[in-house]
Amino acid sequence: MEFAELIKTPRADNVVLHRPFEPAVEGTLCLTGHHLIFSSRRQDNAEELWLLHSNIDSIEKRFVGSLGTIVIKCKDLRIIQLDIPGMEECLNIASSIEALSTLDSVTLMYPFFYRPMFEIVEDGWSAFLPEKEFEFLNALTDEWRLTYINKDFSICPSYPPVVTVPKSIDDETLQKVAVFRHGGRFPVLSYYHKKNGMVMMRTSQPLTGTNGKRCKDDEKLINSTLGPGRRGYIIDTRSLSAAQQARAKGGGFGVEVYYPQWRRIHKSVERFNILQESLIKLVEACNDQSHNMDRWLSKLEASNWLTHVKEILTAGCLAAQCIDREDASVLVHGTEGTDSTLQITSLAQIILDPDCRTIRGFESLIVREWLQAGHPFQQRCAQSAYSNSKQKWEAPVFLLFLDCVWQMLHQFPCSFEFNEHFLVTLFEHAYASQFGTFLGNNENERSKLKLPQKTMSLWSWVNQPEELKNFKNPLFEANSLVIWPSVAPQSLQLWEGVFLRWNRPSKFLDEAQEEMRKIISDNRVLQEKVNYLRRKVAHMETNDEMQEDL
Amino acid sequence: MSLKQVEHVKLLDRFSTSNKSLTGTLYLTATHLLFIDANQRETWILHHHIAAVEKLPLTTSGCPLVIQCKNFRVVHFVVPRERDCHDIYNSLLQLSRTAKYEELYAFSYNPKQNESEQAKGWQLIDLAEEYKRMGVPNDYWQLSDANRDYKICETYPRELYVPRTASKPIIVGSSKFRSKGRFPVLSYYHKDKKAAICRCSQPLSGFSARCLEDEHMLQAISKANPSNRYMYVMDTRPKLNAMANRAAGKGYENEDNYSNIRFQFVGIENIHVMRSSLQKLLEVSGTKGLSVNDFLSGLENSGWLRHIKAVLDAAVFLVKAIAVESASVLVHCSDGWDRTSQVCSLGALLLDSYYRTIKGFMVLIEKDWISFGHKFSDRCCQLDGDPKEISPVFTQFLESVWNLTEQFPQAFEYNEAFLLQIHEHVHSCQFGNFLGNCQKEREELKLKEKTYSLWPFLLDEQKKYQNPLYNPSFSPNLTLLEPNTVSFNFKFWRNMYHQFDRSMHPRQSVYDLIMDMSEQNKQLEEDIKQLEAKIKRKSGQSDVVLLKEHQQSAHPAPVMLKTPPCFKKDQPLIPLNDAVRTIEGSNTADNRYSEFMEELSKAEPAIVSLEYGVARMTC
């Protein structure tokens, strides 16, 4: 298929662009296969807007006489409006945008066409290999091994080819366990806590069904990870009743008799369309400037977004607490083990492990716990808050995770190497990107699409020194401690950097940020200069003394 | 007072679900309640700060005593013996309710200043100077001596500025037509626009009464503005309330009777609504194990943020009239000392960058709140009086200012700590400034001889109150702030209402860190100057050194081999405040997610009954 077929009117003149808090500009609109490009005609301030078609969440068109108006709502929550003279042009452009923003073939997406203008120093596709991660683990403990049992994705289609499992469990056993777990997601290692040797594992629900089926190999695997006298907690991300209901569909939960050293905790975290609706309601509330105070607060409440943030953060804290404070190991699962499970395992690691609070460590966490662990990004992030498709598989699971990380960053502003901009950038790229990193739903799909060969990794771009500096938190001072965030409603805040980003002028806040950065960098420069001058004076005085000695 | 000291008292954490507590000794002094825990940490509570004391039913561990303070601290003690608890309870009731001004802390507080220092302190803020700064008196406005002896209005200051054309009979006539005699006077004069903010109380118009002098008075105000002959009259009350007042012979201006006025209601609720609103807010924020939705719906039901928005919206309306239309504005409510003070002072703060400096803010409070008779004593319940007179009107003003500092982080010289400290002292009765209800009362109390002024003390420690991001050129003289009052800009002021609940705060404060760095930068610049001067002096002494230095600069390492002698002489770098990066209260037990573990612990106490120490570190 040629993109040209979809582009009926490639160019329109005298188009007026409206953006919030900026004066309207007149210019020319161009459509290409992947971008909507608007360039202003004015000499004084020629500006261009490049918008990825894949960033467009929904479009609306309306007409007043022959003047058409297209309202474009983006996945990054921005809303722009284009006034296009001529009904036909406008209709053509609208239908082209609609077609180009909803291409169903992944291989037609921009990452397959994007040619980077920068030199690749380190290929992001090979920057975080499981083998490399395992080396660090192996230096600490020899109770774990890498298994290649899934190298052709036949045991578990949503797992990567290589996963870490207990050394005492052979591949044959794993194969049997995989049959007993939803989607073949047998328990694998997610995190090893250096301080006390406790571990966090993740899996999916056991297929116990209504008649309480058990699997000896599953029991063997899970029990083998606890030493004698040790205890562990199974954190089920569903409520007890939801877990019980799952039995009717063949799923269920492990019965404690068969896992005697483990205690089960139900910590319910919402999923799927409930989250999607929550996002839609929240964004709706944030976009309406006319709300009076009562209406705003009740809309914010009705969206339940902050409740979800609190829920997920609390569950993450609970997992971390079991490991660090109770000296217990933890196994996390929900139904499929690809959503709420990953939110919890990754948040717990950020709380416990200072490495995950560095840029490199956070990237590695996202690769391990989200991309390789099989969070279906393509399904979940197909649409964002302006979607009206109401597909069951769309859900802002990753955005909620990022929001929780932001809450922690807000509470521990010196403990993270990255800044808010980094989190916002990850949010944007998860929904629309020139990079292939978030394409596909799991490693299996990514390898079939040959993403590492055909597209550029987001990490290759982010990790260039000149880009990296934009993502650095100037206040960062490595903090080796566990960080326990407060989950009191008074401590949780709306993530304004995402949800109010386009709804209010940010000039004064940006300038204040800039001033803050300046004070910090001045501090470094001045310290250095004082040290240098002191050395110089010291040197002169030494010389004086030498002369006196002479 | 029979009892002075009780041992083995427990101080419970207000929000902890695990009944975490500190054990220590409780002391009762003449002015404070003091708790010293086993780690020798002290908690001081001023008796005047106590808003309510409550004795809860006896429990197995003792008798619980809950103390709520006006600065929103809530402490929960458990006293082992009921008798002791009863004694403390009674003593506190007595001590926290003062009958006479002379018994307030300010009259016994002695900061070791001599008389001339004391007098100088009181002269720090000079309102005559302030009116001069605004540009009055001038061709249109003059100082009136009508109230020199408080004969016309007892609750106004002696010195009032009125239009030149307002003769004494007009003033007297107008004052008779206004509640409590509070006739229209100048609150703020905008030099550039030649427009004025004036303030008064409601007219005694009833359903049809008129007063020619009052009409002349308003006309005089509008004529005193050469830029716009129209003036706005803002009634800051909801229309319904104003109408109800007509039945009592009060009310609002009839546009037909006054020439060239535009009348406007702005709908700020009265002191009773505000009092109960704050009460509801505190109930919500004090709830243990609060869910997000209960918090948000509680916040909504309290109406608190709605009221803050209403106050700021009114100020924005006023500012637009002046800045856009160059029109003068007359502001009133009922008596003209609550809502009127809020709106006039916030309006001036938005219009004039002077009030965004530390000194300017003091002046603003002295002018629009203290001198114009905001009833601090009644509103803050300084003396045991009518509980219906209590209202957080001034707190709302501070909160509105805080909201502005959040929107304009570089526009204010002062920081949040400054606002909190002022709030603290409005209620502490430690200084004379806020005692009493009006200037006349203050003079009668001889406050300037018998008590001290707060402002010099705040100025002395102004480093603590300086905003490190403040940029004076951000808003040069008379630059207008145009705040965005869309609802989502108004946030719950955690640092006010949970000031003493450390576990809810961010565990590391960017603000404090930047403040220290900015302070350190100044010191470093100073050091650099000195070092450079030293180098210059030395290199002047001998060229040999310079030469050698050049030779060695490629290899600076040997220099460090010998301990540099100058290091001993030099001032050490100011250490960054360790506390800033201390992760205080970062402890699972402080947070709510431990609940699950507690549930489990009932079955197996061995796992959970650990009491974790507070993780402290300096990063």
Automatic annotation (TrEMBL), chain A:
Membrane protein topology class: Peripheral membrane protein
SUPFAM superfamilies xrefs: (Phosphotyrosine protein) phosphatases II, PH domain-like
Keywords attached to this entry: Acetylation, Cell membrane, Cell projection, Coiled coil, Cytoplasm, Endoplasmic reticulum, Membrane
Main location: membrane
Record's GO cellular component terms: cytosol; endoplasmic reticulum; perinuclear region of cytoplasm; ruffle membrane
Subcellular location: Cell projection, Ruffle membrane; Cytoplasm, Perinuclear region; Endoplasmic reticulum
Residue ranges constituting the Myotubularin phosphatase domain according to the UniProt record: 124-499
Gene3D superfamilies linked: Pleckstrin-homology domain (PH domain)/Phosphotyrosine-binding domain (PTB) (2.30.29.30)
PANTHER family for this protein: MYOTUBULARIN-RELATED (PTHR10807), MYOTUBULARIN-RELATED PROTEIN 9 (PTHR10807:SF56)
Similarity section: Belongs to the protein-tyrosine phosphatase family. Non-receptor class myotubularin subfamily.
Name assigned to this protein: Myotubularin-related protein 9
Species name: Gallus gallus
Automatic annotation (TrEMBL), chain B:
Protein name: Myotubularin related protein 6
Family: Belongs to the protein-tyrosine phosphatase family. Non-receptor class myotubularin subfamily.
Coiled coil: 507-541
Keywords: Coiled coil, Hydrolase, Lipid metabolism
UniProt-annotated catalytic positions: C333 (phosphocysteine intermediate)
Keyword Signal applies: no
Lineage of the organism: Eukaryota, Metazoa, Chordata, Craniata, Vertebrata
A biological process from GO: lipid metabolic process
A Pfam family it matches: Myotub-related
Residues bound to substrate: N270, I271, C333, S334, D335, G336, W337, D338, R339
Gene3D superfamilies according to UniProt: Pleckstrin-homology domain (PH domain)/Phosphotyrosine-binding domain (PTB)
Alphabetized GO MF terms: hydrolase activity
Domain named Myotubularin phosphatase: residues: 121-497
Record's keyword annotation contains Lipid metabolism: yes
